[in-house]
Each structure stands twice: as C-alpha cells, then as structure tokens.
Amino acid sequence: xxxxxxxxxxxxxSSDEEDPxxxxxxxxxxxxxxxxxxxxxxxxxxxxxxxxxxxxxSPKTDKNKSxxxxxxxxxxxxxxxxxxxxxxxxxERKNAPSNEQKRLPFMTSRDSGTTTPxxxxxxxxxxxxxxxxSSDEExxxxHTGERATRWRNPSPKKRKSEAEKRSPSQGDSQQLDESxxxxxxxxxxxxxxxxxxxxxxxxxxxNAGALNIKxxxxxxxxxxxxxVQFNYCFDVKWLVKQYPPEFRSKPLLIVHGEKRESxxxxxxxxxxxxxVRLCQAKLDIAFGTHHTKMMxxxxxxxxxxxxxxxxxxxxxxxxxxQGIWLSPLYPKLPEGSSDTAGExxxxxxxxxxxxxxxxxxxxxxxxxxxxxxxxLSETRVYLIGSSPGRYQGAQKEKWGHLKLxxxxxxxxxxxxxxxxxxxxxxxxxxxxLGADKTKWLTSEFQQTLxxxxxxxxxLPKHEIPLHLIYPTVENVRTSLEGYPAGGSLPYSIQTxxxxxxxxxxxxxxxxxxxxxxxxxxxxxxxxRISPHFKELAWFVVTSANLxxxxxxxxxxxxxxxxxxxxxxxVLFLPSAFNMKTFTVQKTQFSGSKNSAMSFPVPFDVPPERxxxxxxxxxxxxxxxxxxxxxxxxxxxx
Length: 637
What we know:
Blueprint: E1 2-5, E2 8-11, E3 46-47, H1 109-112, H2 146-150, H3 156-165, H4 173-187, E4 194-196, H5 213-216, E5 224-230, H6 236-242, E6 252-256, H7 260-270, E7 276-280, E8 294-299, E9 303-308, E10 323-326, H8 348-357, H9 362-372, E11 382-386, E12 389-392, H10 400-411, E13 423-426, H11 441-449, E14 466-469, H12 473-477, H13 493-496, E15 506-507, E16 524-529, E17 535-542, H14 548-551, E18 553-555, E19 560-563, E20 567-572, E21 582-583, H15 593-596, E22 635-636
Helix pairs in contact: 8-9, 10-11
C-alpha cells in the first residue's frame, strides 16, 4: 500500500498492528518501540553507500569549533560485515536467527561492537584524524602496577592529592588530567549535579563540565566495593573495561530485561567474569522494556546513585548527547539509626527503595538493605519512576506521569502568571499516541506537564504552548555520526503515518549553547519554561521517551494507570534549592558565579519550529538525496 503525504511516497506494511518491527515484513509483535534505544529487526537490512562527492549542504560550523574542525577524513565504505560482539538489549533479538553474520539493520557499533556500512571506516579510526574517547585507549595492562598500588584505599581527597603528586606516564597523563578535572568539577559545588556526557569531535571547551563513564567510575570518586548497573542494552566486555583495573574484580550486578535467546547471549557474555551476576527484571505486560539507566555504587567511603540516559555500550558514550545526575557521596548512618533516618526533603530515599522493591527480586534486597544504612538527606531532586503494572487508588500516583503530576501539585510554584508558561518535551523516540491529540497527549500528558500547585487556577490546556523537540532528517544527516545516528532515533513510518497531527508540535534539535548541535540527542528532558525563555518552573531528565508505555496511560474511565516499562528520572524543583524559579543558563561554560546558580538547559531556547522543508527523522525509509558527513546515504532494503 502506498501513500502520498508530507513525507513523500511511503510503502508500508498492511499490518493492523500499531508499530510493526522496523524493516521487517513479519507480523507485528509490538505495539510501541519508543522506549527502546534501538529496535532491531533481522529480516531485512540497511545498506549505506559511499558517495564520492561532498554533501550538498555542509553542516554549519558554530563560531567556536565543530566536528568539521577535527580534521577527520571521509572514509570509503565497504559492504563487508564482521562477526563480532552482538550486544544485548532489544526485544527483536529474541526472534533473531542464530547466524550473527547477517547484517543487522540500523544496528550501529554501540549495539553490536561491529560497524554498520555507514560507520565502517576501514580501521580508519586510527588513521582518519578522529579523536577516540579514553574508553578505547586503555588496555587492561596500562594501569596496573603503580596506579593500582598508590590508589588502593585512601579517601577520595587523599587519592586526589597523591594523584596530583605522582608523575604520570605519557600513556595515561591525559586520562589522569581528565579525571582530576572531573573531581574539581564535583568539588566546585555545582548545585544541581546535572551533567552532560563528554562528546568526541567537539571543541574541548564544551567538554570541560562534562563526564564520561570512566570519570563516574574513577577511584577519585571513591574506593569501590560493589556496584549495580541497571540498563536496557549491555556490552559486558566493554562495561568491565570502563572500571579501573583495581575495581574490575569487585562484585557487579547487572539488572536487565532480556528474555529467551537474548538472555542466553547476555549470560554467555557475562560468563567469563566470576564477579558479574545477572538479575532479570520482570516484564509481565506485553511490549514493555527494562529501560531504566541507573548505577548504584557502594564505596568504602560511602554510597552514590547515578541516574543517566546512556546504554552501557561504547557508542552511547561517544558522539551522542546524554544526561547524567550524579548524587552526593552519601555517608553511612550511625549504628542503631531508625529506618526513616537519612531521608531528604524530597523523600528520595523512600522512593528509591520503593522503586527497587517493585522489581520483586530477592537479589535486590541486599541493595535495599545497603541503602537503608546510608544518609541520603543531602538529595535535592525528586525521583520519578515507572514500573510495569496496573495501579488504582493511591498506588497510581506513585508511578509515571501521575507521580510527576502529584509532585507538581504539591511543590510547583503558585505565582500568578505561570499558568501560561509553555511546556517543552525533548526525547529520542516516539510511541503510538493515537489518532489525534486528545487520545493521550493533551488529555493526559499535557495535563500533567501543566499542573500547578493545588488551589491555583489555570487556563484550558489547549491554550498552553507545547514545544516538542525531535531531530529532523537534516539534523541527522549533518551530525557527527551521520545517518547511523538515526539508529538510536527509532521513529517508524508505520507509527508516523498514523499521527501526522503530532508533527505540528515539532521543533528542531539545536544545542549550540553546549556545542552539541551535531551530537544527536539520546537524552530525554521535559520542562516548563517562561514565555521569554529565561526562567524554568521545573526540569526533568529521564530515560522515558514520548510514549504511553513509558509514562503510563489511563484505563477504566481514568481510575487505573497502566505502565508497560521500567523507567527512571529525576525532577528538579526550585523550592528544593530555596529558589522561586531557575534562571536558564545562557552561557554554560563561562565559569562565572552567576552561572553557577542558573540551570544548564542542554539545548538552545527558544526552540526553532520545523520549517516547511523540515521532516522528522524516520528511521526505516531511505534517504538518498544527499550524503551524510561521511559520504553515505541511508537505504533500508
């Protein structure tokens, strides 16, 4: 069946399901893919051809530095495939054929450890001028010996002092400097503890206030005793290498949502590591995923929580825009403290324990007991989690968008005028939201996003502007990764054609303020912002995309909330920081005292609405009108 529309002529599956598996002609098995970082199918394949001429439109170069200044060359691309690691993390892997030598459509190296045709640089990573992240520069043997013995057990501050005194070898000096800079960043008193990931290929000044995974796991932040990694997609071998050598044998628990064949593969990946255990999250409702991205880090000096947006695979930490909330180092409570001791004004400790209890896993009980022993009172953010289930009564306000609604009704500002403030949603994937906006977006979700403190009247919700930020085709084409960046933006033609009404809300991805316009977003954020875009009423960073599966949808005449997936994020409210509103930080790397108390929104505001020629990125249709930044075109076959 063919259709003419805003996106040209589409040839689509005749399936009646909401969202067929991308690029697959098999009957649909899933209603939504939005919560997935990458939904992969195996029946078809994507071929990206190298085009010799330069792109018709070169990516714009910002006045500072962009990826065009990094000096990399456009590589030739071969059509050969490699049979390397196949990462775990998509439900379609459960139906995958056993022959892993087949090309995996839209799978980038962050999924598989291989390269797609567009990403293949014929080992050119070493030769083309690309600057590799430190994640791949280290071998297992580079940091054994002196570093391991000197950093054995002292406190973080003492470790920093000793690290500064020692003379690093040429091989690890850059990584040491980066770790010390990250330590200084944390010690500098950044009040919100909200960071972006470091991005390879942008100006160094834009990475000055950012973190990579090795920073987070650095000995400078604590002497690790054990850790838990909650995530959707894993490369176990890569993950283990991100830990410092002295911590790689420490107990590591991986919480995942894999089933059947993909679960078997994940167990095979973990088998060589005696310290690694696996915990399977229960997914009792169809089409749900374990999409939460969190680290629990137990140190000799204390305990830390990290809530972020990156999969535990190389490419998610390489050239994408990701978000990280890093907790303070929580101290241990005195022995004999009550169960309610160490609670914060945001009820974070209670909510974190309640979230872990929702897994109904004996394996996580050990960590619940650990958390009870620590003082989390310094936490200033609110936890917003989604856990699969159907909830009624007071239970339904504990999860998803109704949890956000409850918190806003209790703690949002009551100042007059804020009822007219616009709402922003920014995400990397979109679910099936219904035939028109009243089916969920404005009837449920926007009602939550525009909630004011109890007792405050507000305008009808349709009068409040809603700005949805999602990359255009041109955003993807001119990105650092080129078209393969679209492999992590799985908005399918089957879904898009059913909700053309949604595209009128769309705005381009632009992040000159953080130097990340060409680093495609995998971060998900939601906020309420003033009409002049200078103040924030609140801000959320989360794993939850724009989907009913992630945020929940009402059933039974609005008496029941149904959630399919595990998600986790944090809410920043000015009242928790003794402020009336957050000031939007316009110059994020100025280092001034004034900027320290303004909020670092990771993209440009006001957002720019799609023009007539802009189209949202749809990942399972071809793009052949112009090559990407690596000279390739995108051809799903």
